[in-house]
């Protein structure tokens, strides 16, 4: 039995094409590495210790720890949260803007945080993918606002939750307050995104990302450094290709369909 071809006018298909159609190879490969090495590192402490970022060992010539520390996690909750962000936000970023911008945001954000913290806090030994995820979150929220393009729902939910959550766990009252507060922020932003196309949600999320990036960067928090790199990448003017111009036109058509015009 042959299925009928998909209707090119289907708003769901059009919306998917409007967001982006690039293949997210970097997200896939990195997610597999983080998933596998994360489990191995948690089960075999020697592997975790061999890959974590230790400023004293970096100073002794083991410079590769600046990057390898992004592939392992310290506890299972961190593992699940960071892997989810890498997959969801990474997929959205790479699908729309390509592997180059994905690498700039994730790699640049993670390495910037690693280098700055290694120099500024030589006693801090740590590991985790969250600073790289922060770069992706910053790029997604700021660039989506600049392009007036509502991201796919799940990546937006994660990014909108991540920003207030890392602020409140980093310099605020901690996990018990951070989760509920971040959930309320997400609910408000998603309500606007679904019912008004993000007229308030997109600029509000971008502004929140910028404010948290500045606050946590001043506090020498790696999440803020990663977020700042991604936000700056999203804020700079980009040269628009013909493909992106066509996609922008499709995005406007999708918004019109959703409004019933």
From TrEMBL:
Q: Where are the transmembrane segments?
A: 25-47, 75-93, 100-118, 174-193, 200-216
**Location in or out of the cell:** Membrane
Give a yes or no for keyword Cell membrane in this entry: no
UniProt xrefs under InterPro entries = Peptidase_S54_rhomboid_dom, Rhomboid-like_sf
**UniProt source species:** Cellulomonas algicola
Q: Does the keyword Transmembrane helix apply?
A: yes
What residue stretches are annotated with the Peptidase S54 rhomboid domain? 61-180
Task: Report the domain of life of the source organism.
Answer: Bacteria
Can you say what this protein is called?
Peptidase S54 rhomboid domain-containing protein
The GO terms this record gives for MF are: serine-type endopeptidase activity
Topology within the bilayer:
Multi-pass membrane protein
One Pfam entry name: Rhomboid
Q: Which GO cellular component terms, listed alphabetically, does the Swiss-Prot or TrEMBL entry include?
A: membrane
Main subcellular localisation? membrane
Q: Which SUPFAM superfamilies match?
A: Rhomboid-like
């Amino acid at each position: 039995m042959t299925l009928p071809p998909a209707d090119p006018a289907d708003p769901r298909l059009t919306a998917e094409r409007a967001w982006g159609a690039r293949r997210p190879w970097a997200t896939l490969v990195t997610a597999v590495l983080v998933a596998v090495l994360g489990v191995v590192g948690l089960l075999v402490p020697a592997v975790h210790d061999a890959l974590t970022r230790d400023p004293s060992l970096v100073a002794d010539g083991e410079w590769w720890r600046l990057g390898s520390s992004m592939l392992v996690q310290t506890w299972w909750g961190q593992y699940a949260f960071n892997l989810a962000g890498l997959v969801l936000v990474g997929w959205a970023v790479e699908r729309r803007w390509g592997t180059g911008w994905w690498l700039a945001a994730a790699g640049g954000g993670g390495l910037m945080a690693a280098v700055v913290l290694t120099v500024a806090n030589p006693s801090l030994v740590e590991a985790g993918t969250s600073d790289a995820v922060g770069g992706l979150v910053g790029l997604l929220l700021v660039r989506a606002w600049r392009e007036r393009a509502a991201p796919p729902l799940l990546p937006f939910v994660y990014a909108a939750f991540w920003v207030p959550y890392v602020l409140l766990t980093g310099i605020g009252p901690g996990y018990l307050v951070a989760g509920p507060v971040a959930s309320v922020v997400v609910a408000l932003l998603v309500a606007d995104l679904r019912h008004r196309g993000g007229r308030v949600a997109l600029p509000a999320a971008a502004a929140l990302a910028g404010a948290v990036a500045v606050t946590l960067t001043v506090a020498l928090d790696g999440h803020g450094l990663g977020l700042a790199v991604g936000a700056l990448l999203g804020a700079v003017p980009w040269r628009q290709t013909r493909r992106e111009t066509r996609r922008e036109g499709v995005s406007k058509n999708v918004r019109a369909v959703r409004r019933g015009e």
